[in-house]
Amino acid sequence: MLKSQKPPQPRGVGYVRVSTGKQALSPAAQAAKIEAMAALQGIDLIETITDLESAKEGSVKKRPGLIRILDLARRQQIQRVVIAKLDRLTRSVVDLGAILAQLDKHGVGLVSATETWMDTGSAAGRMILNIITAVAQWEREAIAERTAAVLQYKRQHRLVYNHAPFGYTRKRDKLVPKPEEQTIIRRIKAMRTKGQQLRAIADRLNSDRVPTKKRGGRWHASTIANVLRLAA
Length: 232
Description:
single chain, 232 residues, Rossmann fold, 8 helices, 6 strands, elongated
């Protein structure tokens, strides 16, 4: 009788984040939790990657270790990422949603030693992933709406911005229309009224070498959308 073969162990990496401020879990404690969880889940832990991060540098883009993990996922060299605690990965729902979406896209599950429900390699974990992704999308849209409302109010009342929006310049604590940029705004509105897509408008402005607010910058669909929203 042939013996049944055991399924291969999923390959995984651990992720440790070390903050310069006070933290409940030391790097050694995080690594120990990760190793224990990997053994419990039958994960072949090939490496534990560490990021050193200051309290003010929370952006995922500033974490070379996490970027490397996402690259390993993209190249399908791992199937699991193991963390000691969710807040060591991120405290932002938006960032968490983005990270989980990227891992899920490449079939990589996230496992937490503390939040045992966080195993996106399981059906229950994928359900949690869907909920977190939906909440992250809602939070992104809510932030965008609040930001747009504040900027709209400031524009209408000619109040100062941290950075003057396209079409305006700062004069002391007031916003003053900038004629050459107002002309570009009218052109953008005219193209949009004719039914042109945001990307097509951006491409046309870039082709015509129309300057953006930032010297040497290029127009993008998102830039056009922001100009239209604030000019409404």
